[in-house]
């Protein structure tokens, strides 16, 4: 229980809002009370808080209060670097200064990332095993570009005080950074590493152990909850912001990959540490895998082909022979160079062995309902060869046991109530049968007065052969009515580029497309030049925040269902159906609802914003699932009449007020 001598949370919020020049918002007050009650009652809470609610302040104030009263830090987890920076660079410093006089001491905070994000001093200066030479691209320009990045990292390493990769601006490639960083599995440990006393990752962790609020990301939160060794300081309360991303980020953490490259990396790392014939056996198994993957079609692998099963068994067994031949894991512990080489070799071998075991274990179940994981083949691209992947069909059990079982968790986002309820995401989080509450604190925006949701019911259903001519005509007329000022959100990069190419000659306003430049620069140009339009894909949906007259129209080309051939989502759909559920609604419709809500959320970013959301896909008005999708969106005024949005946009263009 929080210390009763501390000021009430309402009073702290009021002081903070006044000092920061804001005004009281009912949704924010409702949320701050709900978060405080959840902490007091040790009950999980899901809060949907629309844009403009001030949700960061609404969870930071009770979090700081709890940390002060319990001497236990609160962990804030986010999905994006942008929100992390906003919290650490803007929100927390201002709030700490504001509340300092009301609390026992000025609130303290720190950011903590995964070990790979910090420069490893020892690796930067010692004879660490070389990274995967075969990853080097043969294009001399690529090699020289990587060399310049390596030189820049070396110069930066001499002056950095944090070792945080994000300090490097412009950024560097993963290939260059790998030469200066280690994973948690590869790390020698602070006590055995010659640079342990000045290790950037350990210093960051030490700072995090001394503060009131620790800001981290969903991936590290998952690693901490599910790993054997704690990464985050001991804590009682977690706030998960951007909680709609939690399941995907956790799934990424627990997805494993097996390829010829990962096998050959293990072979090179084990190198001279064991007898050559033993290492050669693993190399031959890797070559067998390479040949097999080159000939196999990409996609989900429902039944284990005999030849793949034999190859996986061979990789598993030869990797184990190499591990056994290495001898005790703590050998050479007094020689850091040799210890580093051994740790790197064990890490690569363990990954290969354990992934092969997981893939073999994914098969042999009596029914589809009993299956726990899915295996698929990722096809080759221009930059990488094919690889096998394995992922869990659900992470709800992991989250229920590892994250929600040990602490109080507050989950918040602008988009959590899919179809009007929290049930869908609660089930994905493993909260369906647990002690939790969901509340929607609303939004300060008057959606029916500020925005129109227009569904182009008269258009044909979208096909697989690109954008129909009727869609291009519709987009042209809408943009002309808006005088530009349009964000076009497309289901694929191909569709975004096709629309850009087809419309640049038809429109007399500037038209930018994702990929023309960095996303940050494109969004800046879009925001600063009112007539400019910006087309992009789903990846833009959460990253664009453009208040004001530069954005009056958001166009969404189709309901963003996952691709039917996506291995993981299609397997999850089938798994739900095998257990008696509605796989389409539980997986595909939830996915579409979440992305639609995120896309629609781009329009209103400030109190004076007005405009139109135009969804060109008629299924949003006609399909049996349309009610579920519409109930997932903010309550805009709805129409299917093409004349209504055009007239509204023309009025906004001629009279922005």
TrEMBL record:
UniProt similarity note: Belongs to the helicase family. DinG subfamily.
Entry keyword set: ATP-binding, Helicase, Hydrolase, Nucleotide-binding
EC number: 5.6.2.3
Helicase ATP-binding domain boundaries: 14-286
InterPro entries in alphabetical order: ATP-dep_Helicase_C (IPR006555), DEAD/DEAH_box_helicase_dom (IPR011545), DinG/Rad3-like (IPR045028), Helic_SF1/SF2_ATP-bd_DinG/Rad3 (IPR014013), Helicase_ATP-bd (IPR014001), P-loop_NTPase (IPR027417)
Reaction(s) the record says it catalyses: ATP + H2O = ADP + phosphate + H(+)
Stated name of the protein: ATP-dependent helicase DinG
Gene3D superfamilies, A to Z: P-loop containing nucleotide triphosphate hydrolases
Signal peptide limits: none
One Pfam entry name: Helicase_C_2
Catalytic EC class: isomerase
Domain of life: Bacteria
Organism for this UniProt entry: Nonomuraea rubra
One Gene Ontology molecular-function label: nucleic acid binding
Upper lineage: Bacteria, Bacillati, Actinomycetota, Actinomycetes, Streptosporangiales
Necessary cofactors: [4Fe-4S] cluster
GO BP, one annotated term: nucleobase-containing compound metabolic process
